[in-house]
C-alpha cells in the first residue's frame, strides 16, 4: 500500500517534468516555493484567489500550479473553480493541510529538476 507522501511525490514529479519544457518553467518553480509561504501567511482561500487573479490565460504558470496541486491532493484539475473552498471549517483545514504536505514535494522537485534556487526568489 502506498503512503500519502508517496502519492504526493509521484504526482509532483510528473507535474514538474511536464512543465520542464514549457516557456514558464522558472516562474512555475518560483510558485512552487511561494505557494506554501503564501498559504501559511494568508490562508488557502486568499492564496488561491491571488493565483486565479494572476491567470492571464489557460496556459499560465498560476493555472498549471493550481491544476497540479489539486491533482496531487486527489482533486480534479478544476477544483479551484468550484465551491470546494467554501465547505466546513474542518474540510477547509484538512484541504489546507493536504495542500501544504503536497507542496513540499513540488518545492523539492522545482529545486532538483527546474534548478530554481530559493535564494533567488526576489529576481
TrEMBL record:
Chief location bin: cytoplasm
Keyword check for Repeat: no
Transmembrane segments: none
Keywords: Antiviral defense, Cytoplasm
Top-level taxon of the source organism: Bacteria
Residue ranges that the Swiss-Prot or TrEMBL entry lists as coiled coil: none
Subcellular location: Cytoplasm
InterPro entries: AF1862-like_dom_sf (IPR023101), CRISPR-assoc_prot_Cmr5 (IPR010160)
SUPFAM superfamilies, per the entry: AF1862-like
Pfam families: Cas_Cmr5 (PF09701)
Family: Belongs to the CRISPR system Cmr5 family.
Protein name per UniProt: CRISPR type III-B/RAMP module-associated protein Cmr5
